[in-house]
Amino acid sequence: MTSELARRLAFTLGALLVFRLGTYIPLPGLNGAVLRELFSGGGIGRAAIFSLNVVPYVSAAIIVQLAMVASPRLRGLRKHGAQGRAIIERWTRCITVGLTALQSVGIASAYQSIPGVVTDPGWFFVVTTTLTLTAGTMFLVWLSAQITASGIGNGLALMLLAGFVTRIPAGIAGALEVGRQGLLSQKGLLALAAIVLVTVGLVVLMEQGRRHMPLRYAKREIGGVTYAQSSSFLTVKLNNAGVMPVVFASWLVGLPALGSVVSPRLADVASQLQPGRPFFLILYGLFLVFGAFFYTAFVLDPDETAGNLRQHGGAIADVEPGEATAAHVDHVVSRITVIGSVYLAAVCLLPFVLVVAADVPFTFGGPPLLLVVCTLLDLMAQLRAYGGARPVGSRR
């Protein structure tokens, strides 16, 4: 292990430790004994200062990206380098503050509605809770950025991963308890364990799947230096959108539940969008497919790719530069995205389908499993890079 890798690992572990400690620091003005009787586990149940995690920031990022699709002016910020990214980040954080404040007011009001939970109800409790939760989320956003810059892995993904991983032992214990009570047979538990292992294998296989398009670079001179003819590959992932379609779909199907506080009609819609309901399965699946195509187009623009290749003297083998290259890339990416979107929908809908079809008394896997596997794969890739090891199957 190199000293740089050791330093980054130590920083990441220290930052995650700070995050986990913050999930046990309670909000001021609450009766802890009453809360422990009402809730069990989770930041909200413990009424911690980091209850909201970085979820409001993820929601804000989705809003900003949707706005960038609708507005060519905003979309052009991506081409302005570091300055454009800084403007996008500033807008994202401003929206995060607004979303967190709204959620914090709702949480404070909910606590006040439960008798005995708040020691001194009133506007002062709502204000202090809102400020504390908002400050906690913005601190985590800053901390996740520090992990990404000075640690190992993606800070946001690791923050979300830490919350999921800590619930795994309780989930396993709950599954064993279900078996002990006879709600699920021993064969059923073994079948579920086998399905989980197969699903993990499928996620690993798909996330590491790549489509390589051969590139040819002509002899060229840049800055007085002559470069000989060379070849390379334009690599496209089978799931080029990552876990963002899952976050996007979950956010969209959860909107009616958030709006049900102010609109009875939305409350009726939210009741039909309970996990496992047919309307939920159909809408969630459609949002996953749409999100996969949406984020793939956001990450990989065929016209921009063709322009970059032409600018650097490159071309896809047996394809004319320019519009023909853009059309070829679009065709390949579209076919790959079909596979990737079907895979995402299958993995994320499987737990809910099993609950309905096989009468499984609990959900497992799905989006949390996808996030865990993707984050760990990214973490392993960065560990190999900083450790100086050559990834298996890499090309020279």
Distance between the termini: 23 Å
The helix-strand sequence is HHHHHHHHHHEEEEHHHHEHH
CATH architecture assignment of the largest domain = Orthogonal Bundle
Ranges with pLDDT <50 over ≥5 residues?
Answer: 389-396
Which secondary-structure class do the elements indicate? mainly alpha
CATH superfamily of the largest domain: SecY subunit domain
Q: Which bin fits the share of residues in helices? A: 55-70%
Biggest β-sheet: strands ordered side by side in the sheet: 4-1-5
Structure in words:
Strands 4-1-5 form a 3-stranded antiparallel β-sheet. The protein has a two-stranded antiparallel ribbon with strand order 2-3. The chain is built from 16 helices and 5 strands. Helices cover 69% and strands 6% of the residues. It has 396 residues and is mainly alpha-helical. It has 2 domains: 160 residues, Orthogonal Bundle (Preprotein translocase SecY subunit), CATH 1.10.3370; 214 residues, SecY subunit domain (Preprotein translocase SecY subunit, Orthogonal Bundle), CATH 1.10.3370. It is globular and about 75 Å long. The two termini are 23 Å apart. The C terminus is likely disordered.
